[in-house]
Structures are given as C-alpha cells and as structure tokens.
Amino acid sequence: MKPLNVVIIEDEEPHFQLMKRAINKELPLASVDYFEEGYACLQRLDEISPDVIITDYLMPGMNGIEFLKALNRENKDIPVIMITGQGSESIAVQAMKLGAWDYLVKTPDFFTLLPSVIEKVVRERRLKDTLGETERRFRDLAESTSDWIWEMDAEGKYVYSNPVVESILGYRPDEMLGKYFYDFFSQKEMETSAHTSLQAMAAGNRFQALTIVIFTRKDM
To answer: pLDDT class for 194, splitting at 50, 70, 90?
Structure first.
C-alpha cells in the first residue's frame, strides 16, 4: 500500500500525539495532519487531499456528526472514521448512516486497533475506486459498440442494457431495467423455456441457458 495521508481532528493535542505515535509505529510512511476542529479541516480539504479522516465525536464548535453532514453538503467523498466513547453506540450508528466508513470506541486497546482500521478503510476505498474505474471502462465500451450488450442480476433481471437494444427489440434501455429476461421472449419460446427448465429441475439438474432465444420486438 502506498504512503497514506491521514487527517486527525482532535481538540486535545496530547491525545492526537498518542494517535499519531500509534499510526507511525505501524505505518511509518504515513503523513499525519492535525486539526483542532472541523471547520479548519473543511477549509483545507482540497489542499491536503487526505486518504482518510479520523474525527472524534465530541468536539467544540462542530461535533463529528455535524462534520459528516458538512462533508456531505460539499460532496466530499473521503472515508471518515468516527471515534466515540464507550456507551455511544447510537452515535456510531448515526455516523455510519451519514457515510462514515468505520468507527472506533475509546477502549484500552484503541491505539492498538487504530492503524489496522485505517489500513482496512483505505484498502476498501481503493478497491471501490478500482471497481468504479473498471465499470466506467465497461460502460464506455458498451455504449460505443454495435453489439447488444446487457447485464443481469442473479434473479435474471436486466440491470443494464446499451442503446443498441432499441434497434434490435424497439425498447429503450430504461424500459429493459428491472424486467426478467424471459419477459421479452416470444410466447412459443417462453413455453419451451418453461418446459425445459421444469424438466431440468425435476431431474435435479442445473438449468442451462439456451443457446438460441427468440425475442419479441416491442412493435410486434
């Protein structure tokens, strides 16, 4: 994992120093920036570009929940780890609903757990970014090809179709979404498919996809 840029929002500097020491012990290449309150951090986010923000819930001026709300208002998609005291599970739940990626309770092993939680959150964020880029490349390819490309979920419902479907079946891509693949079969094909799948299930075999499927155009 490449060096991390960690931001800590903590109004007690001695506690920040303990957190920084714990982080650098396990992640020696990590840079750690310190802010005493959330407003100052928000003003410099574009400048420092953190990989993760760690904020205490109990803060003067702007508490951790208010900080998360401010991040959301400014559309800042930065992973946040919320720190709460013991007995503040409801605060942690509220933080997760507002987009926090994880939370830590101030227990005796807090400083031991902190570096591993940071690594986990950043790893998950980078994986999400990688998957998002792969998805964008797939969509760019699908939108530019002359072939009909579609995607279904595990239930057999369309979750994506490129625009080519309209020239083939007469349906706009958005009309395909949420529909089962067999909703567009011809009546004869639907009966044959149902018969084939029932036979397969009765024999205890897995139903295999058909090699040739006859769809019905919207205007037919």
So the answer is: low
Place of tokens 């390819």: 141
Structure token pair of residue 119? 């690594």
The share of the chain scoring above pLDDT 90, in percent, equals 45
Residue 148 to residue 134: CA distance in whole angstroms: 19
Q: Which residues contact 4 (CB under 8 A, 6 or more apart)?
A: 27, 29, 30, 31, 51, 52, 118, 122
Q: Looking at the DSSP assignment, which residues form a beta bridge with residue 82?
A: 55, 103
Mean pLDDT of 93-103: 92
Q: Would you state the CATH architecture of domain 5-138? A: 3-Layer(aba) Sandwich (3.40)
Domain boundaries, the chain: 5-138, 146-202
- The residue with greater pLDDT, 135 or 101, is 101
| Fold type of domain 146-202 | Beta-Lactamase (3.30.450)
